[in-house]
Write a structure and sequence with these properties.
Radius of gyration: 19 Å
Largest sheet: 6 strands, mixed
CATH class of the largest domain: Alpha Beta
Number of strands: 11
Shape: globular
Number of domains: 2
Order of helices and strands: EHEHEHEEEEHEHEEHEHHHHH
C-alpha cells in the first residue's frame, strides 16, 4: 500500500471536503492518506518546496509549481458573487499608499489586491489576526478571507469586495478561483488517478451527507464556527460545484492565470487544461 501525505487547511470547507476519508467513508486497498492541517499560506510555501504529496493551494500559486505538481479537478473553492473582503475602520479614508494586512503573498486575493492597489503597502500575517490588526490600528485595512468574512467587528466596514476587483479584471462574470488542490508529479500515474478519484468521491459523499458530516465535525470541535455559520459557509465554498471542475471554472482559472501573466506575476502563459491529470491513461492501460 502506498502512503501519501495530504495537506489541507483547518478551514471549515477543507475539513468538510476531506473528512469523509478521515472518518473511513472512503478507502482503498492501494492507497492510504496521512493528513495534516496548516494555514493556506504555509501550504503555498510548502508547495514551493515540493513538500507534500497532495496539498491544498491558492489557485494564484499554481503557475509557480506547475512543473512539480499537477492540478487536481476536485476540492475546489470559488466565489460566485462573494469572496474575500477589503475592510477598514468605519469612515476612514484610505491614502494611496495605505498599509494593508494580507493573508499571504501567494494567495489569490493578494494577487488581485496588489493589481488593483499597486501603491498599497502589504503586511502579510495569519488571516485570523487581520481583523484585530485593523481594529487596533496596526494597519489601515485588511483583506478578510475564509470564515472571517461572515462576521466581523461592528467598528469595521467593507471598502471593496475582491469579487468586484475580479469582475473588473476578468471583464466578464466568471466564478472567482480561490483554492484547489495539487498532486506531486513524482507519484505513479495510476496512483495519481486513484488518489484524485478518492478525493472526488470524498467531496461527493460529504455533500450528499452534509447534515450528518457537519454534525460530526461540530461534535468533535473540528471547525471554528457554530452550526448556523457552518451551513452558510459550506454553501459558499464547499458545495456541488466543488467536486469536479467544470468548463466555466476552468475558463475562470485560465482567466486568472492570464491576468497574473499580463500583470507580471508569472513568467509565461499557461493553459490549465495542460496541467490536469490525464485520466484517459487508465482506460488505455486496461484496453
Amino acid at each position: 500500500m502506498s502512503v501519501y501525505t495530504v495537506a489541507h487547511s483547518p478551514d471549515a470547507d477543507d475539513i468538510f471536503m476531506y473528512y469523509a476519508i478521515k472518518f473511513g467513508w472512503i478507502s482503498s486497498k492501494n492507497i492510504k492518506f496521512e493528513n495534516i492541517a496548516l494555514d493556506i499560506e504555509t501550504l503555498n510555501e510548502k508547495a514551493l518546496e515540493n513538500f507534500y504529496d497532495i496539498t491544498a493551494i491558492s489557485f494564484a500559486l499554481y503557475p509557480y509549481i506547475k512543473d512539480e505538481y499537477a492540478l487536481l479537478r476536485t476540492a475546489v473553492s470559488f466565489g460566485e458573487g462573494y469572496g474575500p473582503k477589503l475592510i477598514k475602520k468605519r469612515g476612514k479614508k484610505l491614502k494611496k499608499d495605505f498599509k494593508v494586512a494580507l493573508s499571504g503573498k501567494y494567495t489569490t486575493n493578494a494577487m488581485l489586491f496588489r493589481i488593483a492597489y499597486p501603491d498599497a503597502k502589504p503586511i502579510y500575517m495569519n488571516f485570523l489576526d487581520i481583523e484585530k490588526a485593523v481594529v487596533d490600528g496596526i494597519v489601515d485595512a485588511g483583506v478578510l478571507i475564509h470564515e472571517s468574512i461572515l462576521d466581523f467587528d461592528s467598528s469595521l466596514e467593507v471598502e471593496k469586495e475582491i469579487w468586484d476587483i475580479w469582475l473588473e479584471l476578468a471583464k466578464e462574470e466568471l466564478p472567482l478561483p480561490l483554492g484547489g488542490m495539487a498532486l506531486r508529479r513524482s507519484l505513479p500515474l495510476n496512483k495519481a488517478i486513484e488518489s484524485e478519484q478518492m478525493l472526488i468521491d470524498a467531496v461527493k459523499i460529504a455533500n450528499s451527507h452534509k447534515k450528518l458530516l457537519s454534525q460530526m465535525l461540530l461534535e468533535r470541535n473540528l471547525v471554528r464556527i457554530d452550526d448556523k455559520k457552518l451551513d452558510i459557509y459550506l454553501n459558499l465554498y464547499a458545495n456541488e460545484n466543488s467536486a469536479i471542475l467544470n468548463e466555466i471554472q476552468l475558463k475562470a482559472i485560465n482567466r486568472l492565470f492570464e491576468i497574473g501573466f499580463n500583470s507580471g506575476f508569472y513568467n509565461c502563459p499557461i493553459d490549465v487544461n495542460d496541467y490536469l491529470i490525464p485520466k484517459e491513461y487508465e482506460k488505455l492501460r486496461y484496453s
